[in-house]
Design brief:
Largest sheet: 9 strands, mixed
Helix content: 25-40%
Radius of gyration: 20 Å
CATH topology of the largest domain: D-Maltodextrin-Binding Protein, domain 2
Length: about 350
């Protein structure tokens, strides 16, 4: 991903930074083109920040087999949320998925998504999504974890993850993702600050919290665009790094590693990926049909088996890999004030980019 655009809040509208072109097919009215049809037909544009590691290709292939004509458009979390908000008066996308509750709350507040109750709504815990209004619904739960290769006996594993940035012996041996326009790095930042929040302080964070952030980025080594963390493990460039938990199984298979996880006493950040219809789509019927299909137990179960995911859909969870279920049920969840985080995350990102990034 390219270096993220700087934002001052998650909902900042970056109109001048985006060149937006609607996609059309066979002469049908493109989304947002002012077509009169209640459902314009044509290609369904699906926005997501969860298309990496082959997910986008798999979803497109499965959707085609199911009779859908879709186009996946992928962006980092914050950039994607900004784009949906920027387009809300002239939408290009029809469906958005993969963003977490924090981003979807912003889209809901901006009236950029439309309430819809999927056919599978009774198979998920509605509290994991928007229980109040049903504007968005949960798909997959992930943990954001600090990992290492436990089969490498040369690695000195700290008894506390914070030693990575407070102990000079680990300097440069853990990877930090500085692309703060993406969801995972923002969740890492929220996790670093979670134990140091105070609404009475500037930006809701104590000085101790900012000292943690400064040390975390100063003592680490920035991620390399296009280079997998585990490839850096294999080259002995890094010993530790942070990834979503769903990426562990496939990387162990590819790189021959045995992933260990550093689990802080206060737990790890969790994220629940959601899905919604974009407000104003000219393909509303198609969008709803796609959500009914994609969130169903059969599709989410197949997705879980293919990508080591942990589905919220209880029926789909039966197809999840046993090691994934065991891992997720063993990782304690960090308590994060998501209301405070949503209010300040843009300011936290801006301060971090200006003052602490290498």
């Amino acid at each position: 991903m390219h270096r993220p655009l700087r934002v001052t809040s998650v909902a900042t509208v970056l109109l001048g930074a985006l060149a937006l072109t609607a996609c059309s097919s066979g002469g049908e009215a493109a989304a947002g083109s002012g077509g009169e049809s209640a459902d314009a037909g044509g290609t369904l544009v699906v926005y997501t920040n969860s298309n990496g590691d082959g997910r986008g290709e798999w979803i497109t292939e499965q959707a085609t087999e199911a009779g859908f004509d879709i186009e996946i458009v992928g962006l980092g979390g914050a950039d994607l949320a900004n784009r949906v908000v920027a387009e809300k008066n002239n939408p290009v996308g029809d469906v958005v998925f993969g963003l977490n509750n924090m981003y979807f709350e912003t889209l809901k507040a901006e009236e950029a998504i439309a309430p819809y109750t999927p056919a599978w709504s009774g198979e998920v815990d509605e509290q994991a999504g928007d229980a109040e209004d049903g504007a968005y619904w949960p798909l997959v739960e992930q943990a954001i974890v600090t990992v290492y290769d436990s089969a490498d006996d040369s690695i000195d594993v700290p008894d506390d993850v914070s030693k990575l940035w407070t102990d000079d012996s680990y300097a440069g041996r853990y990877e930090v993702n500085t692309a703060l326009g993406q969801a995972t790095p923002q969740l890492v930042l929220a996790g670093l600050l979670a134990e140091h929040t105070d609404e009475g302080e500037d930006l809701g964070v104590t000085e101790d919290g900012w000292e943690q952030v400064e040390a975390y980025f100063a003592n680490g080594t920035p991620a390399e665009e296009g280079t997998d963390l585990y490839a850096r493990f294999a080259r002995d460039e890094m010993d530790f790094g942070t990834i979503p938990s769903s990426g562990i199984t496939s990387r162990d298979a590819e790189y021959g590693t045995t992933t260990g996880i550093l689990v802080p006493e206060n737990g790890v950040p969790y994220v629940t990926e959601q899905i919604a219809v974009i407000e104003g789509t000219k393909r509303q019927d198609q969008a709803q049909e796609f959500i009914d299909w994609f969130g169903s137990a059969d599709v989410q179960g197949a997705f879980a088996a293919e990508f080591s995911a942990y589905p919220v859909n209880e029926a789909a969870r039966e197809q999840a890999l046993p090691e994934v279920i065991e891992r997720m049920e063993s990782l304690p969840k960090q308590e994060i004030d998501w209301t405070l985080t949503r209010e300040h995350i843009g300011e936290w990102v801006e301060k971090t980019e200006l003052e602490y990034l290498p």
